[in-house]
Sequence to fold (92 residues):
Amino acid sequence: MLKIITAITLTLALTACANTDALDESINSLNMKVDVLSAQISTLSAQAADLAEKQQSTAADVQTAKAAAEQAAIDAKEANERIDNVVASYKK
Fold:
């Protein structure tokens, strides 16, 4: 009976050690995956920051272009008024 109990105890101890090694390997694998995901998140965060900066720059460029277009429309209107005045003075 003592031999059977000793054999069972030894088997359980060996199984526990093997299971611990498998758990350690699994934990190491998961840690590596977490590290990879953390690196990817960092990369995506940097890309998002770059895109936000480019979006702000583009918005500023759009505002500049809008102001230039409005000024061009004002200048064209003034030029048309001057031309109309010149034409009106020749008709008299």
Summary: The two ends are 133 Å apart (CA to CA).
